[in-house]
């Protein structure tokens, strides 16, 4: 199929037409030749039957008078029938009576047909074989068969006729193939040429990107429709390309405009006026830059405050060509502020002030006669603070300007920049004012809640401190701390054994080199033990000398917590080590206990198996008791009769009647002995098989019904002394390839449990074993059901657990149903479940496959 898909349509169409035409003719020729061959053979067989009938009737007299010569002459008349090669006439005893054999010089004598011994009379009257036809005609007079006539005919004439017809059919097929080829070549031009033209136009469009090319409609109606659809598709693509090109040009222009806008905005944001927070300088730079960039009539930048009114930083006009600090365009500014207050929008764009519907008579009057033709106003700020930064673009003259969304976005961003720089300017002015005030120094240093102070690194003395520093060292007046060295408020040695003076000197030197030094050390508080502090040292330049500023953070609580955590971690590690050792000992004890329990379990399982085998022996012994007892009675009777007969023989008084009576008794006794002994032998054989299954654990093929019946017969002795009954309902024909010993152990345990747990007292009970096939005959479902007292719902989830029993101390070891569960799930490869209600009995459902799994997969239960 892949090669056909890759072929050109020209070759594919020719090939398909030729294949259909030649294939159809060949099929019809073969069917015709087969039909003619069959008819010719049947006609030849009918002709031979007619000839055999005539010859048989003519040979009746010759056979009746035993005239072999006449019979041979009659058969010789077949020489005129050229296809007959052999004729044989057999007598009623099967002897050859007359024959005819055609002499063919072209056939070797050893290969010519000869009359063979007479075939059986039951042979068919007409036999059509591969190379010959044979006709059998029974010759009879008054419905009495006298002879049989056999005629063999060659099929050479028929084969020659069929060969001639075959040659004729081959010629016809070849002629039709040539005509089909000519027609296909003509037809493919009508289809392939328009498709090739269409493909050429498509390739030209792909290579030249000239979508004005069109395909010329030609050929059948479908190809004309295809060409028209292709032309419409190309026209649509051409139109879309034109639209895309115009959109691309427009997008490119907008991109260039946006890039220019961003360049202007970036230039203004990075200018020294913006970084230095000089709003007036930035406004002037912005007005001059935007006036020429946007080709505007006037650009205004300012701030509106509800308290101060309008503050126009800068206004640049195209007519003036310079920057003047005047309130230009005040009407536009009032309209923008009113629009902000009314609608909350931060911009107002008017393309034509004369026709704008939003501008009423009052607004037109506010703009004035010399007002702008178009304007764009944008602001930034908060109406709650009552202060707005604004940017206003105005266009004068007869031609109005339409403001795009990019223009509005740029104006808003410029207003944001002015507002940001103006806020930064106010913040810097406030900081400078605050730093210049004494109240600021007092708030920052004297009243700070963090202990701080100033240290002279040359004299190694405290020269200043705040109230928090006095409190942390336990002093009440600055004179108590000032003049002391840092080493005097610290212990001589730190917790790690290092000298406090050396630690301070090293970090003060680092601070003097411009580093921010942070470290931890112990300090002293008057009348109290050392406390942990985090010390921050920083270089401080005063008007007269280089000093060191220090800050202290009390970290005693954190250090104590860290030490407590370390101590706790050590204690936890010791506890973990002790508990790990204890767990190791406990695990070893548990391993030893588990091993002991496993050995005990295996021993109990073996005892359970021997117990079930003992019950089996008792049942078989009970079954053997009857036939062996009967055999003893019969043998003793036979012995007495033999003694009586021997006494009569010794006395010479034996009579015929006595001998006959003894023989009858001996015959009957022998029959009784044989039946009873055969029954005993059968029981012994079954017992041996059951014992071998339960002890050897061999896998074999068995019939389920016979196996269960043998087990039931062996267990009937346990039910004989009770009012309960054991019944089995097993269909015939359930064959299994499994472990019969394990299956018998399962059923024996389940049946035995009904006597121990289900049926109690004198009330009559019944235990029934049933089986059925399911899962398309691949699995067997065995049900052991009783009508006893049932199982407590609390015990149902645990009945298959090892060592669980409801008769603890009464002979139960709790391994019976656990053994059953292990045998079913592991050895037999199945599953077991239980259904029970109190007072309604129990049903144990064993579902196992007819062919048990391999021993290496599941069979790991001890046998």
Tally the helices. Answer: 21
The separation of the N and C termini measures 62 Å
Strand arrangement in the largest pleated sheet: 8-7-6-11-10-9
| Shape estimate | flat
The main pleated sheet reads as: 6 strands, antiparallel
Helix content: 40-55%
Mean pLDDT: 79
CA radius of gyration: 63 Å
Give the total of beta strands: 23
**Residue runs with pLDDT of under 50 for 5 or more positions:** 319-328, 856-863
Q: Given the helix and strand composition, which structural class is it?
A: alpha+beta
User: What is the percentage of strand-forming residues?
Assistant: 15-25%
Describe the protein's architecture and organization.
The chain has 863 residues and is an alpha+beta fold. Helix content is 54%, strand content 19%. The protein is built from 21 helices and 23 strands. The strands form 5 sheets. Strands 8-7-6-11-10-9 form a 6-stranded antiparallel β-sheet. It has a 5-stranded antiparallel β-sheet with strand order 2-1-5-4-3. Strands 13-12-16-15-14 form a 5-stranded antiparallel β-sheet, with helices on both faces. It starts with a helix and ends in a 5-residue tail after the last helix. The model is unreliable at 319-328 and 856-863 (pLDDT under 50).
Summary, kept brief:
The chain has 863 residues and is of the alpha+beta class. The strands form five sheets. The chain has a six-stranded antiparallel sheet with strand order 8-7-6-11-10-9. The protein has a five-stranded antiparallel sheet with strand order 2-1-5-4-3.
């Amino acid at each position: 199929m892949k090669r056909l898909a890759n072929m050109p349509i020209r070759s594919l169409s020719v090939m398909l037409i030729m294949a259909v035409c030649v294939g159809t003719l060949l099929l019809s020729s073969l069917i015709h030749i087969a039909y003619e061959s069959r008819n010719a053979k049947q006609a030849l067989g009918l002709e031979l039957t007619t000839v055999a009938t005539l010859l048989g009737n003519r040979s009746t007299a010759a056979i009746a008078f035993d005239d072999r010569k006449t019979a041979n002459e009659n058969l010789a008349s077949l020489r005129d029938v050229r296809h007959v090669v052999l004729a044989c006439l057999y007598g009623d005893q099967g002897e050859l009576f007359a024959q005819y054999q055609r002499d063919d010089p072209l056939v070797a004598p050893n290969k010519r047909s000869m009359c063979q011994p007479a075939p059986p009379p039951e042979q068919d009257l007409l036999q059509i074989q591969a190379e010959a036809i044979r006709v059998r005609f029974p010759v009879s007079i008054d419905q009495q068969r006298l002879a049989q006539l056999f005629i063999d005919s060659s099929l050479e004439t028929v084969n020659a006729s069929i060969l001639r017809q075959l040659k004729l059919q081959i010629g016809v097929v070849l002629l039709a193939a040539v005509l089909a080829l000519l027609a296909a070549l003509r037809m493919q031009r009508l289809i392939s040429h328009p498709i090739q033209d269409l493909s050429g136009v498509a390739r030209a469009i792909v290579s030249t990107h000239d979508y004005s090319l069109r395909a010329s409609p030609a050929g059948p109606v479908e190809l004309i429709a295809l060409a028209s659809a292709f032309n419409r598709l190309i026209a649509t693509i051409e139109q879309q390309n034109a639209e895309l090109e115009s959109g691309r040009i427009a997008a490119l222009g907008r991109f260039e405009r946006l890039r220019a806008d961003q360049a202007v905005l970036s230039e203004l944001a990075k200018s020294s006026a913006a970084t230095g927070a000089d709003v007036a300088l930035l406004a002037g730079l912005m007005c001059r830059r935007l006036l020429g960039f946007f080709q505007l009539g006037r650009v205004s930048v300012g701030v509106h405050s509800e308290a101060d009114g309008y503050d126009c930083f800068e206004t640049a006009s195209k007519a003036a060509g310079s920057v003047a600090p005047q309130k230009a365009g005040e009407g536009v500014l009032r309209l923008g502020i009113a629009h902000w207050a009314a609608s909350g929008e931060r911009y107002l764009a008017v393309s034509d002030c004369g026709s704008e519907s939003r501008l009423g008579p009052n607004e037109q009057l506010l703009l004035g006669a010399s007002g702008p033709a178009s304007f764009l106003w944008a602001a930034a700020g908060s109406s709650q603070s009552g202060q707005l930064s604004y940017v206003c673009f105005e266009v004068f003259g007869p031609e109005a300007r339409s403001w795009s969304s990019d223009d509005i976005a740029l104006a808003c961003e410029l207003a944001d920049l002015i507002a940001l720089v103006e806020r930064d300017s106010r913040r810097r002015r406030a900081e400078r004012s605050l730093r210049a005030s004494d109240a600021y120094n007092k708030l920052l240093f004297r009243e700070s809640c963090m202990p701080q102070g100033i240290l002279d690194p040359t004299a190694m003395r405290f020269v200043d401190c705040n109230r928090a520093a006095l409190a942390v060292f336990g002093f009440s007046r600055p004179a108590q701390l000032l003049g002391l060295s840092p080493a005097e408020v610290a212990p001589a040695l730190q917790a790690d054994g290092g000298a406090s003076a050396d630690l301070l000197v090293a970090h003060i030197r680092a601070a003097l080199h411009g580093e921010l030094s942070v470290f931890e050390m112990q300090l002293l508080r008057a009348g109290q033990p050392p406390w942990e502090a985090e010390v921050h040292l920083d270089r401080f330049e005063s008007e007269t000398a280089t000093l060191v500023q220090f800050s202290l953070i009390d970290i005693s609580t954190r250090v104590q917590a860290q030490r407590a955590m370390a101590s706790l971690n050590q204690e936890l590690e010791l506890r973990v080590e002790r508990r790990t050792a204890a767990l190791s000992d406990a695990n070893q004890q548990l391993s030893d206990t588990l091993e002991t329990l496993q050995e005990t379990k295996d021993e109990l399982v073996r005892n359970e198996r021997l117990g079930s085998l003992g019950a089996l022996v008792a049942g078989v012994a009970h079954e053997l008791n009857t036939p062996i007892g009967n055999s003893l009675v019969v043998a003793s009777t036979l012995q007495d009769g033999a003694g009586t007969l021997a006494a009569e023989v010794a006395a010479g008084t034996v009579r015929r009647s006595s001998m006959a009576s003894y023989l009858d008794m001996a015959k009957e006794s022998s029959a009784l002995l044989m039946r009873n002994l055969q029954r005993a032998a059968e029981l012994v054989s079954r017992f041996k098989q059951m014992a071998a299954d339960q002890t050897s654990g061999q896998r074999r093929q068995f019939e389920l019904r016979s196996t269960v019946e043998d087990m039931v017969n062996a267990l009937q002795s346990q039910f004989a002394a009770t009012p309960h009954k054991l019944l089995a309902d097993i269909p015939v024909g359930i064959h299994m390839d499994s472990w019969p010993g394990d299956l018998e152990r399962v059923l024996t345990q389940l049946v035995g449990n009904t006597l121990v747990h289900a049926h109690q007292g004198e009330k009559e009970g019944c235990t029934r074993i049933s089986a059925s096939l399911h899962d398309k005959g691949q699995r067997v479902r065995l049900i052991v059901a009783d009508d006893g007292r049932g199982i407590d719902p609390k015990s149902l989830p645990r009945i298959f657990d090892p060592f669980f029993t409801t008769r603890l101390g009464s002979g139960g070891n709790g391994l019976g149903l656990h053994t059953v569960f292990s045998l079913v799930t592991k050895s037999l490869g199945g599953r077991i479940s239980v259904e029970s209600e109190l007072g309604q009995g129990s049903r144990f459902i064993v579902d196992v496959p007819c062919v048990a799994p391999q021993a290496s997969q599941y069979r790991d239960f001890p046998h």
